[in-house]
Amino acid sequence: MMTSVENSDNAVTLGALSRVRVVLVHTTHPGNIGAAARAMWTMGLSQLVLVSPSRFPAPEAEAMASGADEVLERARVVGTLSEALTGCVWAAGFSARSREFAGRVLAVRQASEEAARLLAAENAPSQEIALVFGTEMSGLSNEELAQCTVAATIPANPRYSSLNLAAAVQVAAYELRVALGAGTVWQAPRFVGATHEDIERLYAHAEKTLIACGFLNPERPKRLLPRLRRLFARAGLEREEVNILRGILAEMDALLGEKNQSGENKKL
Question: What is the b/e burial string over 188-224, where b = at least 16 CB atoms within 10 angstroms of the residue's CB?
Fold first, then answer.
């Protein structure tokens, strides 16, 4: 089940993601199929199409899927890329190396934005697209790339631009997910915020303690107090945090009182 995705994404986004095929062509190592399945599942993609893989199913694929078994169970195995793309209105063939007759070449982010517009089109609510990746050693052939609508590339270190297959799938799936607007992230819990009165009492307490310890000269305060006020405002303090700070100030007050009392006793 895709619980975490369902909790964070709206129905429109989920519907769009369900119409994306990830096509792996002539994959030689079944472990890469499993790793690609895991990369897909983390981004909410579930359609995996394998074009003449060397071995599948295989225990190595299951091991590398690491919980994305549902993607492997749904995977379709076909004989040709043409068969894998049947019914698709758009396909991006991924390649790290330049090709003389590649046609339109887009960076992965641009390709994802174009794909997202097609998936979100109101006049075509059921059309499917594909993200196509070639074999590990040489990628897609020129003939295979020519069957795709666009050539897509992941901008990387020009001295070493070839990504691992699963890593390339992960980047492409993430970019498409973001392009579709699925950017919800978890939030840390927010506790009870400090009120205006809480902050004012803290401010007054701090001023009194700073004067008592000699850090603040009330006759020449300079800009210390306004800066403290700005600091408190910028921090967005919670009530418990104010209590902690005032507790620290109270301990300082007690120590200052003991010091003063000790000094008075010595004078006597």
Answer: eeeeeebeeebbeebeebbbebbebeeebeeeeeeee
Per DSSP, what are the bridge partners of residue 46? none
pLDDT digits (tens, 9 = 90+) for 59-90: 999 999 999 999 999 999 999 999 999 999 99
Q: Calculate the alpha carbon distances from 242 to 1, 194, 197 in Å.
A: 43, 7, 11
Rounded distance, CA 101 to CA 62, Å? 37
Q: Report the candidate in 176, 167, 155 with the shortest Cα–Cα distance to residue 96.
A: 155
Q: What is the per-residue pLDDT across 16-72, written as a single tens digit (0 to 9) for each?
A: 999 999 999 999 999 999 999 999 999 999 999 999 999 999 999 999 999 999 999
Ranges of H-type helices in the chain: 3-8, 11-17, 30-42, 59-65, 69-74, 81-84, 108-120, 142-146, 165-179, 196-212, 224-235, 239-267
The CB-based long-range contact list for 4-12 (8 Å cut-off, 24+ gap) reads: 5/44, 5/182, 8/182, 8/184, 9/44, 9/182, 9/184, 12/120
CA atoms within a 13 Å half-sphere pointing along the CA-CB vector of 170: 14
DSSP code of residue 125: T
Q: Is this structure's pTM higher than 0.85?
A: no
The tokens describing 128, both together, are 């499917």
